[in-house]
Amino acid sequence: MSTGVPEGYDPHAFPPFAVTVDLAVFTVRDAALHVLLVERGQDPFRGRWALPGGFVLPRESADEAARRELAEETGLGPDAVGSLHLEQLRTYTDPDRDPRMRVVSVAYAALLPDLPEPRGGGDAASARWWDARATGPLAFDHDRILADARDRIGAKLEYTCLATEFCPPEFTLGELQQVYETVWGVELDRPNFRRKVLGAPGFVQPVDGPPRRTGGRGKPAALHRAGGATTLHPPLLRPQPTDTPHSRPEGRTP
Amino acid sequence: MSTGVPEGYDPHAFPPFAVTVDLAVFTVRDAALHVLLVERGQDPFRGRWALPGGFVLPRESADEAARRELAEETGLGPDAVGSLHLEQLRTYTDPDRDPRMRVVSVAYAALLPDLPEPRGGGDAASARWWDARATGPLAFDHDRILADARDRIGAKLEYTCLATEFCPPEFTLGELQQVYETVWGVELDRPNFRRKVLGAPGFVQPVDGPPRRTGGRGKPAALHRAGGATTLHPPLLRPQPTDTPHSRPEGRTP
DNA sequence: ATAATAGTGTCTCTGAGACATTATACG
DNA sequence: CGTATAATGTCTCAGAGACACTATTAT
């Protein structure tokens, strides 16, 4: 804030930037991570799919712009949008990321439970869920934003209670495990998963009544709600794909 | 990118934003975390201290702007600045964060070893290191940016090899431990710290020759260099202030 | 009965924390 | 000598992984 081009802070002496938000909206559906994309109706990248987003208005913060856009794209009410998890990822500032003009974009990640009809009624006439692993090349630098968003979500599942954001208000531990397995792309041992989830204070609460719900033709599962905690102690670490699991020649030299 | 204000993308139809970078430059000096601040010479916040920073130029990315500003403020050469750790934190977009105009700021954190004369020769005539715990109220929203930067650095020490960025090219394990203790504000058990650092593959490498260095009047310590790894496996978790059933940080019972 | 999912119990190994002990410098 | 710092070793417990086993539903 001390150096730069506009010496006298003349409001018209600085280079004009546009500021947008881009949203990576995720849900878990059919045991696969899905992301909400919109089809572009005009150049550049006409016909390509892109992350939903839009301009930040003069009197709103980027967070407010993100929630506004999210409401427009998903058709959710302002109350629902206000309560769901929205997280700033990072800001993309490559001078050539938009061929028309200088645009910096603040990227956000949002997590939704699998909704009955999530496609909204805004101006995004052609919005749909895509398998997050199988999106074609997206417009602008959205491939990179999407990849960064996936990495961030996966990492945050380890040490936060974020996974419950993918679930409906009441859920089974099997559904919660499905979230982890889907985002991480691994299979987890159910008894161990149970032990860790129930052992983390404030992660989940058993629903008091004895009601249960069936997921198919097995034993009905007890229902849980999200607990009050936001961070996970101890963390739920994902299994490490790096080479040998527990024998390391590097270490003590005799 | 699909909705918003400028329907036809007229380059003059969108609200004008200025984009700046703000830098939280940290070093460890005298067993305390220090941050580089500059004194503002003009309103608003004249005479208040602020994080260094400046405008993003029309043809550079925010990362490039951050490195350019860092070189100006510290007086380091472009090669030195190009090699040190610079990390985007998040972007601050409150519409009223700058009383003059609409400015969004991309915040960065940088880590430096304790340099002989770190104060640079740019236009920041009055730049100096401050104890990061004892900065007065800063200009703009820089108190919040600084707090966020401290949190991020502390968290990243747990699962990355970032701590070596605070050290000179060759360092002792005692100096590395000092970094952790200073950033986290806790005392660590030296034998356990040693075991974990040496057990993490690629974190540090012993310097081949038998040269040693003294820190005062004790036994000289072996020198190490940063290893090739960037992430820490297993992580070096900071002791939890939340009382756990079995471990007590303040456990000196006679 | 068989399949499928939910839930419990147990064993072992790793890593963290606490702490004792030895080694090598300085005064 | 004592003191200060570096380095090694040892003990114990918590948590993770692997896996056997039981429980309850649908077909």
Automatic annotation (TrEMBL), chains A, B:
CDD domains: NUDIX_NadM_like. Coiled coil: none annotated. Residues 16-152 form the Nudix hydrolase domain. GO terms for molecular function: hydrolase activity. SUPFAM superfamilies: Nudix, Winged helix' DNA-binding domain. Gene3D superfamilies: Nucleoside Triphosphate Pyrophosphohydrolase, Winged helix-like DNA-binding domain superfamily/Winged helix DNA-binding domain. Pfam families: NUDIX (PF00293), WHD_NrtR (PF21906). It comes from the Bacteria. Residues 245-254 have a biased composition (Basic and acidic residues). Keywords: Hydrolase. Residues 206-254 are annotated as: Disordered. InterPro entries: Nudix_hydrolase (IPR020476), NUDIX_hydrolase-like_dom_sf (IPR015797), NUDIX_hydrolase_CS (IPR020084), NUDIX_hydrolase_dom (IPR000086), WH-like_DNA-bd_sf (IPR036388), WH_DNA-bd_sf (IPR036390), WHD_NrtR (IPR054105). Belongs to the Nudix hydrolase family. This is NUDIX hydrolase. It comes from Streptomyces nanshensis.
